[in-house]
Specification:
The protein has 8 helices and 24 strands. It is an alpha+beta fold. The strands form 4 sheets. Strands 11, 14, 15, 16, 17, 18, 19, 20, 21 and 22 form a 10-stranded antiparallel β-sheet that branches.
Length: about 475
């Protein structure tokens, strides 16, 4: 006679929480036993070379000191050096204040550095400072262009030197396609926002990089990258550039003026890419309201024309003059809040509303690109933005639709020189690595260096007070 065990369809499997609690207790007991018998005690390998000093394990670092050096590592490694890189918008004072150097000492440093020829700083410049044990400043260094400028303080004498670096210039070309944004594509290729900003500035009169770029747009840039002692030493000029937006291609070729050697940019026909007006008077924004004859006002709730462009941007964003001109009005103007109106000589006038701060006075002259105010939300406004408007004669026009003339063209006497520069740029973009995306090197050059300049200045003689 056989028996079958009964089948329990809903048989209990036990208490899950209880089993989990038991496992945790067992694991904790194991850790206590391991700690007691030093099962996890660190066993140091034999020292073979000094590369081990790179370890961040300070107990191991002390052992390296004992075996390899007669002095502590702090003697060999300058841990008290602080460095930074100059960014767009930095001033000499703001840069040093961010490095915890007082305004008085910053002024001293500037006057000393100025005495050996450094008049201004540029984005990409490298700055280092070294402080002593007591926190006193012992050394200040800046790599600007192709020179190291260094100040040493000792007792009552300061020593300043200007030393040329062996700068190697790489002429590079970058080929890219917009997938998200220009800045994002450049970053993926390992190129700084410095070049992105320069590129955007070159085409600022034709392309509004807040609204115009589309996925699939193609860009090419030929530019200079400098290296000193194997380290990046900033960027040089953009030599040539091309941007294709919705089947329309824009060119820019760098050509130095014969009188002042400033790099200026011209299109494929020799016309200046710089126009009378910027496409947009600020960076880092989005259009929150366009030019229209019918818009419901966000505050008043009524439908009326909006004969300008609203650029949404954070409070404090710099606002630039769209063109050279004269300030007709700068002050409060009803619903526009803090308001600026500029006259541009001919038939054009531009206005800037809802500013947080006005930085010009009525009657003063301004130049294209000059900061005239800061974005705000004054007057009838629901958030920080710039209300930008343009008039031609007495009628408002859409700043994004109006066709603006170029400033000038290549003179006949320099036409042949420009053609050679243009052809070189086209060859670089069309034949060298034309089918390869990303960053490529076209040429490497190493200019001859000049002599070292050294000065010693007594601190009580005025220049370094």
């Amino acid at each position: 006679m056989s028996y079958k065990l009964p089948y329990f369809k809903n048989r209990r499997r036990g208490n899950t929480f209880l089993r989990f609690f038991i496992v945790i207790c067992l694991f904790g007991s194991f850790l206590l036993i391991a700690h007691k018998f030093n099962l996890f005690k660190k066993k140091y390998p034999p020292v073979q070379n000094a590369s081990l000093v790179l370890s961040i394990d300070y107990e191991w670092e002390k052992r390296v000191e004992e075996l390899l050096f007669s002095k502590p590592l702090s003697y060999y490694i300058e841990r008290d050096i602080v460095g930074t890189v100059v960014k767009a918008g930095d001033s000499f004072l703001s840069l040093l204040l961010n490095m915890n150097i007082s305004g008085k000492r910053s002024d001293e440093i500037y006057r000393i550095i100025n005495s050996v020829g450094l008049k201004t700083i540029y984005p990409g410049d490298s700055v280092e400072i070294k402080k002593g044990v007591a926190g006193n400043l012992e050394r200040f260094s800046i790599l600007s262009k192709s020179f190291w400028y260094t100040i040493h303080w000792k007792d009552s004498v300061v020593r300043v030197e200007k030393k040329p670096q062996d700068i190697t210039t790489y002429t590079c070309v970058i080929n890219g396609t917009i997938m998200s944004s220009l800045s994002e594509q450049m970053y993926e290729c390992g190129v700084s926002d410095i070049i992105t900003g320069k590129f955007a500035d070159i085409f600022a009169w034709d392309i509004n990089f807040f609204t115009d770029p589309r996925k699939g747009d193609i860009f090419q840039i030929v530019f200079e990258q400098n290296y000193a002692d194997g380290k990046k030493a900033g960027y040089g000029d953009i030599l040539a550039a091309r941007y294709t937006n919705e089947k329309k291609t824009f060119y820019a070729f760098g050509f130095r003026d014969s009188s002042d050697s400033i790099m200026r940019y011209y299109d494929e026909n020799g016309k200046a890419v710089q126009k009378e007006f910027l496409k947009a008077p600020l960076r880092f924004s989005r259009i929150s309201s366009g030019f229209t004859h019918k818009r419901r006002h966000p505050v008043l709730g009524i439908v009326r024309p909006h004969l300008g462009i609203d650029y949404a941007a954070p409070t404090g964003t710099p606002v630039a003059a769209a063109a050279d001109g004269k300030v007709i009005y700068a002050g409060w103007k009803g619903g526009y809040g803090n308001y600026i109106e500029l006259s541009h000589g001919g038939a054009y006038t531009t206005t800037y509303g809802h500013l947080h701060k006005i930085m010009v006075r009525s009657g003063s002259r301004v130049t294209q690109g000059q900061t005239i105010g800061l974005v705000g939300s004054t007057g009838l406004s629901t958030g920080p933005h710039l209300d930008y408007r343009m008039k031609r004669g007495s009628a408002f026009v859409n700043p994004n639709a109006v066709t603006l003339p170029s400033r000038d063209s290549i003179g006949i006497d320099r036409k042949a020189d420009y053609e050679r520069v243009k052809v070189a740029g086209l060859i670089a973009m069309n034949t060298r690595f034309a089918d390869k995306s990303g960053l490529q090197i076209l040429h490497i050059s190493k200019p001859e260096s000049t002599g070292v300049v050294v000065k010693e200045i007594a601190l009580n003689q005025g220049v370094a007070k």
